[in-house]
């Protein structure tokens, strides 16, 4: 924990709430803050108990997304897992956007929106509860879009639910796009970027087959997304033959553009960091190594057929019981970590890959991580081949598992959940082979600030992951 940080009492929603501790410093100038965050434009949420996080340049609170310096807001789209309606509407109220149109797709909400509709309490909100046909699948993606009076759009991809605790207690990741303008009349292109961001996000929205999204699809089709320097990595439920979703889509991009030095592929370890873990099988060979790590090992510098001959180093960052007990709010902060003890007892082999949650460099060791990230770094912990911020935890439901498709020669990928993430590749972000992950005096390129500390610290023999009884 960084020195000088003091605990703050929790305050109620309103102009004097914790959110203003960040926003009151940037009110009217958030556009400049986003400009300074180029080329990565990635932030972490503030922690109410640590004022040190409130003044970080790389911290972003929810009201900042609604700051009037970002444009004349006309309406918003939020696709999320859990919604706390009163908190969400309070954010619009304190930023001067009360009554602005909102489209809301969600799985859980603390209010009965249908009942509120009948009482004509929320005339400015279109809403749809997404019900997944599979018990293990959820509408778990967290994507917001903001439309402005000049026809431009901004996209936000994050790990946070739309509720107060997610934006005050837990470590979250937020990527904020540039303001994508309307295509000019003489622009005959499709408005896509080199990363196919526009095509991928349109495909993701269309997969919902939801009428309330049709106007947003129309808006996107009219906008120029050529500034997008990240890839959009979605998962949607279904049995997919095409490699357009989940870990197979990630693989297809990495094998084209991910750079690794020539030589043995196993030199560079893969790091996964998440807030929950699914049932991964009776051994690491059942799915983790045979499918998931195999996909994340892809790169453009060696023969993919040779990957199986090497043991790819893999590390999994997940909070221990001690991590949670030493957090700002103790066991209460474990509510964002939903790994079941019953599942863990069936895959004790996973512990050999596990590492402590530590984030002293960003003042967040005591703020439990709801953020989900995946990356590949150099053995010396100074360079990074790629980085993914996503809603997807380490599970088959989120990423997909191999299945045989009836009547098809090739195998398919069976996904149960909606997820969304953004992939950072040096070729498109900094026009380099790798990202630097530490600031150096002689570096000519911006460095990527990771949401955890390096080098990693492995679990010791007495450490156990935080888990819950279902």
UniProtKB/TrEMBL annotation:
<feature type="active site" description="Proton donor/acceptor">
    <location>
        <position position="370"/>
    </location>
</feature>
<keyword id="KW-0540">Nuclease</keyword>
<keyword id="KW-0539">Nucleus</keyword>
<keyword id="KW-0378">Hydrolase</keyword>
<dbReference type="GO" id="GO:0003690">
    <property type="term" value="F:double-stranded DNA binding"/>
</dbReference>
<dbReference type="GO" id="GO:0006281">
    <property type="term" value="P:DNA repair"/>
</dbReference>
<keyword id="KW-0234">DNA repair</keyword>
<feature type="binding site">
    <location>
        <position position="142"/>
    </location>
    <ligand>
        <name>substrate</name>
    </ligand>
</feature>
<feature type="site" description="Interaction with DNA">
    <location>
        <position position="395"/>
    </location>
</feature>
<dbReference type="GO" id="GO:0005634">
    <property type="term" value="C:nucleus"/>
</dbReference>
<keyword id="KW-0269">Exonuclease</keyword>
<dbReference type="InterPro" id="IPR010347">
    <property type="entry name" value="Tdp1"/>
</dbReference>
<comment type="similarity">
    <text>Belongs to the tyrosyl-DNA phosphodiesterase family.</text>
</comment>
<feature type="active site" description="Nucleophile">
    <location>
        <position position="140"/>
    </location>
</feature>
<dbReference type="GO" id="GO:0017005">
    <property type="term" value="F:3'-tyrosyl-DNA phosphodiesterase activity"/>
</dbReference>
<feature type="region of interest" description="Disordered">
    <location>
        <begin position="1"/>
        <end position="21"/>
    </location>
</feature>
<dbReference type="Pfam" id="PF06087">
    <property type="entry name" value="Tyr-DNA_phospho"/>
</dbReference>
<dbReference type="GO" id="GO:0003697">
    <property type="term" value="F:single-stranded DNA binding"/>
</dbReference>
<protein>
    <recommendedName>
        <fullName>Tyrosyl-DNA phosphodiesterase</fullName>
    </recommendedName>
</protein>
<keyword id="KW-0227">DNA damage</keyword>
<feature type="binding site">
    <location>
        <position position="372"/>
    </location>
    <ligand>
        <name>substrate</name>
    </ligand>
</feature>
<dbReference type="GO" id="GO:0004527">
    <property type="term" value="F:exonuclease activity"/>
</dbReference>
